[in-house]
Specification:
- The structure holds 2 protein chains of 2 kinds.
- The radius of gyration of chain A is 14 Å and the shape is globular.
- In chain A, about 0% of the residues lie in helices and about 55% in strands.
- Chain A contains no helices and 12 strands.
- In chain A, the strands form 3 sheets. In chain A, strands 2, 5, 6, 10, 11 and 12 form a 6-stranded mixed β-sheet that branches. A 4-stranded antiparallel β-sheet of chain A has the order 3-9-8-7, with no helix packed on it.
- Chain A is an all-beta fold.
- The relative contact order of chain A is 0.33.
- In chain A, a hairpin with a 5-residue loop joins strand 5 and strand 6.
- Helices cover about 0% and strands about 50% of the residues of chain B.
- Chain B is built from no helices and 11 strands.
- In chain B, strands 2, 4, 5, 6, 9, 10 and 11 form a 7-stranded mixed β-sheet that branches. In chain B, strands 1-3-8-7 form a 4-stranded antiparallel β-sheet, with no helix packed on it.
- In chain B, a hairpin with a 6-residue loop joins strand 7 (about 65-70) and strand 8 (about 75-80).
- Chain B is globular, with a radius of gyration of 13 Å.
- In chain B, about 35% of the residues are buried.
- Classes of the chains: A mainly beta, B mainly beta.
- The interface of A and B includes residues 32 and 107 of A.
């Protein structure tokens, strides 16, 4: 079964510093990986996805993610954090069998301190 | 509409009550998903429709949960005899086609609290 894991429940970063939110995956077949962000009382918003090709994927709001096959990781990164980046971040993988549903990690709460 | 709309935004139910949660997907979107997000957890798949056909209901936690999409647009998730463990945010997502490459748009969710 496809799964992702986010080893950190919470990440705190000072504004202006680089940030990393970690994700590792376990899949059979090719990994199709996603990052979503959730602000309070809002739905999940798509940030970026990896299908194939370049290991560095660029997405919305200045975020990028690095796909590493040997480490089975897909970490989310941003060179310079903003206070407005504070939110809940979810890594997800597509289960391509049947419904092609998203399988989510447990989430990481990112707090950017001014 | 411009996005996926869910109603109500908040629902408080007494244990044992029946509830109905509504999802209005983006017009023309073929695929519709329901997810359950417990506090402090990631969303978990409940069920999937392609047009009016419910193709996967493997995530429904018990036979108290029932979903329908009779005309292939609006969907309703019904929970009978609610229990405290049903307290969660219920998210709806829709997609233009039947392939994940079309991407998914999520609604803001319905927060259900069972007291």
């Amino acid at each position: 079964a496809q799964s992702v894991a986010q080893p950190e429940d919470q990440v705190n970063v000072a504004e202006g510093n680089p940030l990393t939110v970690k994700c590792t995956y376990s899949v059979s077949g090719n990994p199709y990986l996603f990052w979503y962000v959730q602000y309070p009382n809002r739905g999940l918003q798509f940030l970026l996805k990896y299908i194939t090709g370049d290991n560095l994927v660029k997405g919305s709001y200045g975020f990028e993610a690095e796909f590493n096959k040997s480490q089975t990781s897909f970490h989310l990164k941003k060179p310079s954090a903003l206070v407005s980046d504070s939110a809940l971040y979810f890594c997800a993988v597509i289960d391509v069998q049947g419904a092609q549903k998203l399988v989510f990690g447990q989430g990481t709460r990112l707090t950017i301190n001014p | 509409g411009a996005g996926v709309s869910q109603s109500p935004r908040y629902k408080v139910a007494k244990r044992g009550q029946d509830v109905a949660l509504r999802c209005d997907p983006i017009s023309g979107h073929v695929s519709l998903f329901w997810y359950q997000q417990a506090l402090g957890q990631g969303p978990e798949f409940l069920t999937y429709f392609q047009n009016e056909a419910q193709l996967d209901k493997s995530g429904l936690p018990s036979d108290r949960f029932f979903a329908e999409r009779p005309e292939g647009s609006v969907s309703t998730l019904k929970i009978q005899r609610t229990q405290q463990e049903d307290s969660a945010v219920y998210l709806c997502a829709s997609s233009l086609g039947g392939d994940w490459r079309y991407g998914y748009t999520f609604g803001s969710g319905t927060r259900l609290t069972v007291v």
